[in-house]
Amino acid sequence: MDSEKQYLDDEPTQEGLIDLSSVPIEFCTDEFIGDLYLKQYKDKEKWLREQRVRNELHREELVKAVQAGILKDSNPETIWQRSIGMANKRKKVLIEFKHEIEIKKDSIIAEVAKRLGKYLPDWSPKFAKILFTMEQSYTCWCKNNDAYINLLVFVDVDDPIEKLIQYFVHEMTHLWMQEPYFSQEAVYPSGKDRLIYSLVNEGFALLNGGKASIKELQEQLGRNYKEYTEESFAFINDRLTKNNPEEFEKMMQKESTCLDKIYLVGVKIVETVLEYDGVEKFRALITQARKDPSLIIKRYQEICEINKDLPKIYF
Length: 315
Ligand SMILES: [Zn+2]
Fold this sequence. Notes:
Blueprint: E1 25-27, H1 30-38, H2 44-57, H3 59-67, H4 76-116, E2 129-133, E3 141-143, E4 146-150, H5 160-182, H6 192-209, H7 212-220, H8 225-242, H9 245-253, H10 255-289, H11 294-306
Parallel strand pairs: 1-2, 2-4
Antiparallel strand pairs: 3-4
Helix pairs in contact: 1-4, 2-4, 4-5, 5-6, 6-10, 8-10, 9-10, 10-11
The structure holds zinc ion.
């Protein structure tokens, strides 16, 4: 079936020009980070009172910690000193990391723009804002026109700057996809259309930002990637063919429970279309798909007619 593919590795392509120079970029303050870690230590008396309760609940562990020399004794005051010392150390590490990103900001943004240009058309964001922040949620996210890059995700990983760039590209792709809805060029999809939009939105963001981690994650969870992809297609097809508005609402509200399935199916669809159509045709189609995401799914269905081995999608 490979002969049907129009994609050639050495296909000459014109990269999209991505201009992020006018996008406002904000950093959370050092005080904000301090607060995040030290808030719980503000009222010492309250903390000690609660620690006495914890001491009762974890008596055995405390004895072990003292025997192992981790704690001098199990006195709440001793534990207070140790905990606040650790929180201060953590705060220092995080603030230093934030300062490192502030210093490297321009080169990070240049790299993000370059990677976005690989499959996006020329783009100068109309509404986007970027916030480098820290939250204890361990995710990055988009809210309306804003991309939140949670620095906490990258502090303890190998090659944190590379990982940050990948997530940054992912979130910027979402902002690009969302732009027609904020500029009122398109109506924000609901129900079934929202699932179709999510498949294309997440699939394209993963393609741009790096998708290796998905396969890795599934394997870490003990799943067979191929089998889980097929299971995910079956799950999505079930939702799309039943077309039950309530079911869609439930699904999109509790997105995390089915988000990995949306990721897997979305990236398979987007990647297959790119592979068959080549970069330039793909760029034109994904640009149209911002207002009508079903175009990508329809193209994938056509490709499924050529390659019968691909998992099918019905809607
Ligand atoms: Zn995403």
